Fold:
Amino acid sequence: MNDQARLIRLIMELRQTGIADTRVLSVIERIPRDQFVLPNFADQAFENTALPIEQGQTISQPFVVAFMTAALELGDRHRVLEIGTGSGYQAAILSKLCRRVYTIERYKSLLQIAEQRFRDLDMHNIVSRHGDGSVGWPEQAPFDRILATAAAAVVPEALKEQLKDGGILVIPVGRESQHQDIVRIRRDGDTFTEEKMLPVRFVPLVDGIAAEK
Ligand code: SAH
Structure:
């Protein structure tokens, strides 16, 4: 089976498992996930599975990427903050559905690889930085939407504070190796409404930047 056939199979599988947002599906169809995985996993890039990336991190399962992207209810004028750039795949998907993506990664080496991918794919509406995303990005706040792609034991207050009124935060919540759920939080003035959406398994959100050789 070639990549095109694998991609079509993946899109069909996402539809069958409940991803109904056609804008999200068409972006997943357009972004070459094979360019965001390690070379020795390229043949699995269009499988509906999470895969390992550098520094013991993971590129999320396409179903989970599609689910979280749809949960954000993105508009094309939105400014979106992503915590945990990782491979850059989720940021690439977001960049096609909103005005600008701000993404933060605590591993400098991962960030550099992702930034090269954004350049190679001419994705110029992604702004990235090396840092601790658990404190958000105060200089660029507030955001219409915030997406964390690493699991928090408790939802960081800074992320709630950096949401615009009417904004949405989507974040996996739960401790490592314990039960985690994707939680959607809507801000209405000073009221935050939480909704558990899907059980998941993510790498943890870790405070501080990562030490690397
Ligand atoms: N969105 C990524 C998923 C990568 S896994 C993708 O599409 O590939 C989650 C990432 O979050 C890891 O790269 C991890 O290093 C990063 N991360 C964990 N805690 C963080 C923090 N406090 N600030 C920034 N990045 C963090």
Remarks:
- The pocket of S-adenosyl-L-homocysteine is lined by residues 57-60, 83-84, 86-87, 89-90, 104-107, 110, 132-134, 149-150, 203, 205-207 (CB under 6 Å).
- The CA atoms of residues 80 and 145 lie 5 Å apart.
- The longest strand covers residues 163-173.
